[in-house]
Amino acid sequence: MLMTVFYYLKWHYSKALSDLIELAKNFIWFTFHFFSIGLLFQTFFTPWKRLSEQNTKGFSLEGFMSAIIVTTIMRLVGMIVRTFVILFGLISILAMVVTFIIAFVIWLLAPILLVAILVMGLYYIFYKFPAQK
Length: 133
Prior knowledge:
The model has no long low-confidence stretch (mean pLDDT 87). This protein has 4 helices and no strands. 80% of the residues lie in helices and 0% in strands. The chain has one domain. Helix 2 packs antiparallel against helix 4. It is mostly helical.
């Protein structure tokens, strides 16, 4: 019995703890790639959906200005949409990091809390309320 507890604690604080850290890394990697944060930073200034106005053959001031205005507006729209997606992705990663820090602390304290809850329960059963039997 005592060896089983020892093996459990050895697993709990070695293999399982390292697996929990790897799980956190995998979730963060997935979220980073799910929101394409790296790609969105690389294409931050490109027009939205690659929409842009092409200048017609020959020079026309109206066509040239129209192409500049439409392309600028599409680039601004692309920057705004990409900014929101990047921010939402980074907020998701931050929430995930906070969740895994809490899970890590709970994992470290779980065996101690389990024993404490068991001892407190036995104390209340046998010493605190013996007259109610």
